[in-house]
Structure formats: structure tokens, C-alpha cells
């Protein structure tokens, strides 16, 4: 006769640690070859426990970005209402993208992996779906452009892609804060939209 399965509180999981273990595995063995079972084994948890917190393999990589959309919305609401639209968007995006210095190296590793893997990038596009709309609304409200204008249609996606590419560039080549690269890239992009 087998002993009945014990019921009780679910096993506590250190999300940051499991995500970092997964990142190490992805960088060492390749994102496509590592399975959730591999991550569970290496982190010392069951597959079920890992899946409870990370429903997809890509969520192990993107876990640190979960609060970005809310942070961006909050920072946009707090930016000086007198700032020009693209300056406000740039300032809020840089603040929302802030990474504490003690996490820079981990962030570099994560961004390099994302930059090298089209599937992870595609998942990020889905995760950040809606950010382009938040940015477009801010530009419409602050700059007075029509909501159905070409500028409103493209500005959000342009900002998100520009900031992402700047962050990946920082991960590969930059020094200092990641926000400095994002700020510099968005300033150049803003100059283009200011001319429109």
C-alpha cells in the first residue's frame, strides 16, 4: 500500500533565483535546447512548482519585466504636463526602465539572450503589447495630434522598438546605466518626430 500524498502549503519558490538558474542554463546550453524539466532539476524544484510560477519557458527570461507597463503608466502620469510629448515619453520610459546597479550584469546577460533569440523577442513583443498604445495616447493628449494620424499610429511602436534595441546595444557595448543608452536613442527618435 502506498502512503497517501501529503497536502499542505505549496513549496515556496525564489522567483529571481529560479530565473537566474534558467538564464545560466540558456546561456550555457542554448535557449532552444534547455527544457523546463532541466530548469526544475537545476533549481531543485519540481516541474509542477516551476510551471506554477513560470507558465512558459520565455517567462523565465522576461520575469524581471513584469511591472514595466504599470511603471510606465505611473511615470507618464507623474511627468510635468508642460513637457513636450516626446520629452515626456522619453523621461517616463527611461524611469520605467531603470535597473538598480547591482542588477546590471544580470540584465546585460538577459538582454543579450533576448537579442540573440527571435522567439524571445517575439514573446517580448506580445508581453509589451499595449505599451505602444499607452505611448500613442500620451502623444495624442500632449501634442494634440489626431488619434487617427500617422504619427499616432507609429509613434508607440517606434519608441518601444527603439528603446529595446538601445537596451540590447547597452548589454553588448555600453557602459553606465542602461537608461543612458535608452535616453540617447529616444532623443534621436524624438528629433525625427519633432520634425513631423
Whole-angstrom Rg: 20 Å
Mean pLDDT reading: 89
Reading the helices and strands in chain order gives HHHHHHHHHHH
Please report the number of helical segments: 11
CATH H-level name of the largest domain... which superfamily? Tetracycline Repressor, domain 2
> How many individual β-strands?
0
- What does the overall shape look like? elongated
**Poorly predicted runs:** 1-6
Cα(first) to Cα(last) distance is 76 Å
Q: Which CATH first-tier class of the largest domain would you pick?
A: Mainly Alpha
Number of domains: 2
> Mind describing the biggest β-sheet?
none
Helix content: 55-70%
DNA-binding region: 35-54
InterPro entries: Homeodomain-like_sf (IPR009057), HTH-type_TetR-like_transc_reg (IPR050109), HTH_TetR (IPR001647), MftR_C (IPR041347)
Keywords: DNA-binding, Transcription, Transcription regulation
Domain HTH tetR-type: 12-72
Protein architecture, described:
- The protein is mostly helical and 196 residues long.
- The protein folds into two domains: 15-61, Arc Repressor Mutant, subunit A (Orthogonal Bundle), CATH 1.10.10; 67-194, Tetracycline Repressor, domain 2.
- Helices cover 69% and strands 0% of the residues.
- It contains eleven helices and no strands.
- The longest helix has 24 residues, at 150-173.
Brief descriptors of the model:
196 residues; mainly alpha; Arc Repressor Mutant, subunit A; Tetracycline Repressor, domain 2; 11 helices; 0% strand; transcription cis-regulatory region binding; TetR family transcriptional regulator
Amino acid at each position: 500500500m502506498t502512503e497517501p500524498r501529503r497536502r499542505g502549503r505549496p513549496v515556496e519558490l525564489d522567483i529571481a533565483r529560479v530565473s537566474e538558474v534558467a538564464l545560466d542554463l540558456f546561456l550555457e546550453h542554448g535557449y532552444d535546447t534547455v527544457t523546463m524539466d532541466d530548469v526544475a532539476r537545476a533549481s531543485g524544484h519540481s516541474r509542477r512548482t516551476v510551471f506554477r510560477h513560470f507558465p512558459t519557458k520565455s517567462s523565465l527570461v522576461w520575469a524581471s519585466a513584469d511591472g514595466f507597463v504599470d511603471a510606465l503608466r505611473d511615470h507618464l502620469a507623474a511627468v510635468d504636463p508642460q513637457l513636450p510629448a516626446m520629452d515626456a515619453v522619453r523621461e517616463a520610459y527611461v524611469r520605467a526602465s531603470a535597473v538598480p546597479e547591482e542588477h546590471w550584469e544580470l540584465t546585460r546577460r538577459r538582454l543579450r539572450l533576448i537579442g540573440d533569440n527571435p522567439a524571445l523577442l517575439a514573446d517580448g513583443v506580445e508581453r509589451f503589447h499595449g505599451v505602444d498604445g499607452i505611448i500613442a495616447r500620451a502623444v495624442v493628449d500632449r501634442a494634440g495630434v489626431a488619434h487617427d494620424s500617422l504619427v499616432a499610429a507609429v509613434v508607440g511602436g517606434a519608441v518601444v522598438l527603439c528603446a529595446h534595441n538601445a537596451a540590447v546595444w547597452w548589454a553588448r557595448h555600453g557602459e553606465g546605466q542602461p537608461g543612458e543608452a535608452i535616453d540617447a536613442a529616444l532623443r534621436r527618435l524624438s528629433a525625427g518626430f519633432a520634425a513631423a
